[in-house]
Design a protein that fits this description.
Butyryl-Coa Dehydrogenase, subunit A, domain 1, four-stranded antiparallel sheet, 11 helices, 11% strand, AcylCoA_DH/ox_N, flavoprotein
């Protein structure tokens, strides 16, 4: 029910033309307000708090749908941020909230959240520390964009003297696990759409009298891409297999490591099979593949998360199959 409802709004509000306009600096407010008024920011909140009371498994297909549409606003991040803030007892402010992947104090006392997703447009950033959460007002920050075409990622810098007291109830570990998990789901959603577009193109494009999808070499590349899409989706789903409103760090690590690994392969294969048209600004493929590359890097790439997974595997003393089974069983029982 929720997937169909949000799908209808996303199709209406975030057309390819609308995405391009927002990425170019247009106002995301009207589309964002439509989502907020429909209640999609409070999907994890209990019904007694005016939310939908969804579980993590219920939320997963919603995140997949958000990824499929390459939504140019921190919708997934705001859903997670509101769930995290609920643990602190602090009312989430109205507006767009994104998650910081890091937060540090510089030598001059400035507070910096580097390479923050949707940092160019977010109203607030929720950052994790070992002692609690920081809810930071972006209107007081300097926003430093990446300079990459269409990117809404930015480094946010608050001047020295900013009073920021941690809110107990969640920590940087919780934010890290949420960031990894939701971006794994977004990657899986965008990858599925990229796969559909590529398959359709290969069926429509003819060369030497027949569709290029009929050639064995093309079929092989499509098959490999499909395998990576399936693997990324299964890994991401594992992160949302548990009860409650907090993904576990190990399952989040596996999800992000596998989906990030798949993202670059899927994007490269899609562009290779599309040929020259695939790299043009006018063609919609790049709206999704740019997101795949950006989501691959934020909240830990495969290079970072595989270390976490490897350490856990070595400590377990189990075989690879036993280790994978134990992680899955632990999530199912959580």
């Amino acid at each position: 029910m929720f997937v169909e409802a949000i799908e209808a709004i996303l199709q209406d509000r975030f057309t390819p033309a609308a995405i391009r306009a927002i990425e170019a600096g247009g106002d995301p407010g009207p589309a964002w307000n439509a989502l907020a008024e429909a209640g999609f920011l409070e999907l994890l909140a209990g019904e007694d708090a005016g939310g939908a009371g969804l579980t993590l498994p219920d939320l997963f297909p919603v995140l997949i749908t958000i990824g499929r549409h390459a939504v140019p606003a921190p919708l997934a991040q705001s859903i997670a941020a509101r769930a995290l803030l609920a643990r602190t007892g602090v009312q989430a402010p109205a507006g767009m909230i994104t998650l910081a992947q890091s937060c540090r104090r510089e030598a001059d006392g400035a507070l910096v959240c580097a390479q923050t997703q949707f940092g160019t447009i977010a109203d607030y950033v929720l950052a994790g520390t070992p002692n609690g959460l920081l809810l930071l007002d972006c209107s007081a920050a300097e926003r430093i964009g990446t300079g990459v075409h269409g990117s809404q990622c930015a480094t946010l810098r608050w001047p020295a003297g900013l009073a920021a007291e941690p809110l107990p109830g969640a920590t940087s570990v919780d934010v890290q696990a949420w960031g990894a998990s939701l971006h794994a789901a977004l990657i899986a959603g965008a990858a599925a759409r990229v796969g559909e577009m590529t398959l359709q193109y290969c069926q429509d494009r003819s060369q030497f009298g027949k569709a290029i999808g009929k050639y064995q070499a093309i079929q092989h590349q499509l098959a490999v891409m499909t395998e990576h899409i399936a693997a990324a989706t299964v890994a991401a789903e594992m992160a949302f297999a548990g009860a409650g409103d907090q993904p576990k760090q190990l399952s989040a690590a596996i999800a992000k490591a596998r989906s990030s690994e798949a993202a670059q392969i899927i994007a490269a294969t899609a562009h290779g099979l599309h040929g020259a048209i695939g790299i043009t600004e006018e063609y919609d493929l790049q709206l999704l593949t740019r997101r795949l590359h950006e989501w691959r890097a934020v909240h830990g790439s495969e290079a970072g998360w595989t270390v976490t997974v490897g350490d856990a595997f070595l400590r377990s003393g189990a075989s690879v199959v036993e280790f994978a089974r134990e992680v899955g069983q632990a999530e199912a029982a959580a």
